[in-house]
Amino acid sequence: xxxxxxxxxxxxxxxxxxxxxxxxxxxxxxxxxxxxxxxxxxxxxxxxxxxxxxxxxxxxxxxxxxxxxxxxxxxxxxxxxxxxxxxxxxxxxxxxxxxxxxxxxxxxxxxxxxxxxxxxxxxxxxxxxxxxxxxxxxxxxxxxxxxx
Length: 148
What we know:
This protein has 148 residues and is mainly α. Helix content is 72%, strand content 0%.
């Protein structure tokens, strides 16, 4: 991370995770490689370190939500471009992905449906225009379903 590693921002953490995942995926899909590389614990170690730092700072809840927002926004932007900016294709992918998560989830852990709800909120909500009011509405849109 380019910022001080001791206190990374959610944005810096998101981009470090995205970069590490992309590099790992490229290494795993390298046609010149004899075999896949061993498991890469860098993503786990990076995320654990960041979460422990935020927990120690007393900012875990806020920063985790912001990290999730950054990751969801980047995933939605990537997929929207991949689908040629076709909102219908993107909407179908979102529904299909939600169905796949629902089918494969074998326990009551809320992570799957939560991820789909966050992606849906990101996909359906226009980005803030920079005003303070709009910036406050954005996290509220993501948080409201989980306050209960």
